[in-house]
Amino acid sequence: MHSSALLLAGIPSIQKNLYHRIRFSIGDPAGWIQWTDVNDQTQSMLICRDIEMQRARKDAHVDFVNCPADFPPKEGLSGDRETATAQAIAECMCRHDIDRVRSDRSLSLIYVEALKSAGIQVEYDPEMGVIERRKKSSKEIQALKEAQSATEAVMLKACRMVCASTPDKEGILQTNGEPLTSEYLRRCIDHWLLDLGYSNPGSIVACGPQAADCHALGTGPLITESPVIIDIFPCNQSNHYHGDCTRTAVHGSPSPIVEKAYNTVVQAKQAAIKATKAGETGESVHRETLRVIESSGFSYGLADAHDSCDKPSMPHGTGHGIGLEVHEPPLLDFKGPKLLAGDVITIEPGLYCHLWGGVRSEDMVAVMDHGCESLNTLPDTLDW
């Protein structure tokens, strides 16, 4: 008898489709296999390193747990851990008379080659794991709420540090007798998040013209009367769900154009949130953002880096899905798909100009059938 199976393979702490299936995080290669047995019963197996088997049998969401040594090929297992895992997955499938396997967009060539060498056909499923991860359970949404609450608590501290600083005669902000720099504030953000049980890949703290590049991390001193974009996107160290929040802070008085741009961004965010519900598309929400941006006299698209004129524009989509990764489907952009009840997405309009920098405001919402639930409580203001 020949049959087919589903396969996810990689390092569960990195490969989030695999982690989502097994709910077990380890830092070594592993493989999840699911097939239907002769009694039409669905069975699943995790193949992982031998020293992880005891924990896996207790915590992993699978029927069976094995290690590569349980499935050695005729030529023996490689001394390379990932190669040995791929060999064992292929040998396990051969012993179960599996000749076809379907996998997701993350399956690496090391597993594909091991399967093909064993005569197993590999089929690519571009949607495997996508819909399952998009439609968040109530438990997942609660984890995201908690992550966003921690993110906002740290955001409030960061924005207040900017606005409570004292400028020197050159306009450079000072805190505790030292210049307040992007690097210093980023380190503070990291420490505050660690105290709350979150790791952080490196927040954006970008001041002045640096912020015209919407993903520039920012370097050097922060300046009075100049907008500072702060974007924080940490990961809970226990459940691996993310927060993601952006605010803009200005020490002193913002210029009229900065104030107008920020008010426009906030209005665009509110309009996009109002348009968000299951059945609407990511594109329609994005177009609602652009309607407000353009009706206020601003533009959409990449700004000319050599343009010395004051022409703020929005060069990016309105937002993205979030969960076990900061950036997940769906996109709120042109060709963005239909939104599903259970999607959790960010809504983050921004306006940027090479002359003075940029402004952005970002909230997280959970999509429902008749609207969406905001997971944010932090206000929208430039003066903290």
Describe this entry's structure for a reader.
The chain has 384 residues and is α+β, with helices and mostly antiparallel strands. 31% of the residues lie in helices and 24% in strands. The chain is built from 9 helices and 23 strands. The strands form 8 sheets. The protein has a 6-stranded mixed beta sheet with strand order 4-3-2-1-5-6. Strand 22 and strand 23 form a beta hairpin. The protein is elongated and about 75 Å long. The model has no long low-confidence stretch (mean pLDDT 96).
Task: Describe the SSE topology.
Blueprint lengths: L2 E8 L5 H7 L7 E7 L5 E6 L5 H7 L4 E3 L14 H15 L2 E6 L5 H9 L3 E4 L5 H5 L3 H27 L1 E2 L5 E3 L2 E2 L2 H14 L2 E2 L4 E4 L20 E5 L2 E2 L8 E5 L6 H20 L6 H14 L3 E2 L12 E2 L4 E3 L6 E5 L11 E4 L2 E4 L3 E4 L2 E6 L2 E4 L10
Parallel strand pairs: 1-5, 3-4, 5-6, 15-16
Antiparallel strand pairs: 1-2, 2-3, 7-8, 8-9, 10-13, 11-12, 12-14, 17-18, 19-22, 20-21, 22-23
Helix pairs in contact: 3-4, 6-7, 8-9
